[in-house]
Fold these 2 entries.
Entry 1:
Amino acid sequence: SQELEQSPQSLIVQEGKNLTINCTSSKTLYGLYWYKQKYGEGLIFLMMLQKGGEEKSHEKITAKLDEKKQQSSLHITASQPSHAGIYLCGAGNTGNQFYFGTGTSLTVIP
Amino acid sequence: ETGVTQTPRHLVMGMTNKKSLKCEQHLGHNAMYWYKQSAKKPLELMFVYSLEERVENNSVPSRFSPECPNSSHLFLHLHTLQPEDSALYLCASSQSRSWQGSSGYTFGSGTRLTVV
């Protein structure tokens, strides 16, 4: 099975600060998805990366997939309270299986 | 609204009760999923339906019984649950059984289940 390790497990930052969340796999990532989950709710799709070295941005959130396609990072610039929640990475393998990471809980203090 | 609707949002049930969770999607997706999310654990895939046929059952206890009457609706029937079954149950759908696609899975808001 494929395991996705996220770090840190939790993060508390002051509003306006930048932060980075990592997602690491021991196997090649064939499609890396980032989701955000507000506490007690469903997951909202953020971005999907497929190619090594790929980088995508949406508003103040940037996601990157490394060249080896085994690690992805999610970077938030000038964090706001609206960024608070749980961030999950997910990835598929060469079959139909899809795995989720352990999640990173983000708190942004106004 | 993501296009996947789950009801109820919250459910408290005794261990001898029978209840059902409902999921509905009008995205034209052909695959639907039940996930369990417990505190500090990765999302656990429970069941997968593709074109109304169950294609995956990940060693889920028989007290959980899924039903997919058509491609838009998915149910999870609950019977004689245990307190450790308390969790957030998430429904998801995707265009096809393959995970590949621009947005992967579309999730509902979940049902917070508490077993007392």
Note: The mean pLDDT of chain B is 91.
Entry 2:
Amino acid sequence: GAVVSQHPSWVICKSGTSVKIECRSLDFQATTMFWYRQFPKQSLMLMATSNEGSKATYEQGVEKDKFLINHASLTLSTLTVTSAHPEDSSFYICSADLGTGSKGEQFFGPGTRLTVL
Amino acid sequence: DAKTTQPPSMDCAEGRAANLPCNHSTISGNEYVYWYRQIHSQGPQYIIHGLKNNETNEMASLIITEDRKSSTLILPHATLRDTAVYYCIAGRANAGKSTFGDGTTLTVKP
């Protein structure tokens, strides 16, 4: 149980284009999901908290107009990188917890590697 | 989340127990200790968590000191597949998001 998937697993795009990454909870409902970014040889950095049916909460320094988050259902959150540039190349990871009744343990997706040319 | 401190790297012989320490001296009474690991180029994997008591599951054991200022993750019989970066996080159960430090890179050697 508690499986989180991401799609695509990797994507290469041209500078200036937009890329959408999907995060799905496969066997549970997630009212809240989290998006992280990880650069090579660095730790995970939280970008934003995605809330089902409401606006996402972004961490300081993360541009909300560049990283659009939509959490339209209890099993799907999407991250769209708009007008991507080479500096946006990174490993993007989502996570979710089991909500009420859990002790806050997070379950992570396998990650999406974005390369912007 | 309370700040955690972990050694940057550790080695372990295959088949032996791997003991990974974590210091969380500023942890508050309602904060749990969570352990995750990240194998190269994959998303992190949940391992175990605890509040006060020692915990054990099919993957590992978690030993928390009585004062809760430190803990140790124990992999009883390390295999080569346990080579990964191990993260210790201290946080509230309803906080949701996790603050990741630099973790410990565990290398299991044949």
Note: Chain A touches chain B through 26 residues (CB under 8 Å).
